[in-house]
Amino acid sequence: MQESTYKLQPFHLAIPVNNLTEAEAFYGDILGCRQGRSSDQWIDWDFFGHQLVTHVAPERVLPPAHNAVDNQQVPVPHFGVVLGMAEWQALAERVRAAGLAFVIEPSIRFQGKPGEQATMFFYDHSGNALEFKAFADLSQLFAN
């Protein structure tokens, strides 16, 4: 596998939400993201070291489609981050404690194969699908 030539930098992603109160409850209270700049139409979040912006645009939130991946129905589109295994496990417990339903329960995907990873999927309060991953061996991130 060829090494990446990119120096890892935070990504920026802007997503639609129904309202900012729900966004604050989900991204701030449940996920534990630190809030940055904001207005009455958007909030910047420190999303695990990346910049996520939740913009009020309820007409843009659509139900996701699904694709089969390793015998599970994965919501498309979705976004998320790769965490360390301990962070991933702690987040899974916070999501459970908050009473959120998982689309795909925390589990190991591609077990014993290239790219083996811990993964979980759930929706925010506006229907945006999120995936969080962790690898016992981070070199497997781009394995094929």
Automatic annotation (TrEMBL):
Residues forming the VOC domain are: 9-135
Which SUPFAM superfamilies does this chain map to?
A: Glyoxalase/Bleomycin resistance protein/Dihydroxybiphenyl dioxygenase
- Identify the Pfam families for this entry: Glyoxalase
Domain of life assignment = Bacteria
Listed PANTHER family: PTHR39434, VOC DOMAIN-CONTAINING PROTEIN
Q: What is this protein called?
A: Glyoxalase
Taxonomy of origin reads:
Bacteria, Pseudomonadati, Pseudomonadota, Gammaproteobacteria, Alteromonadales
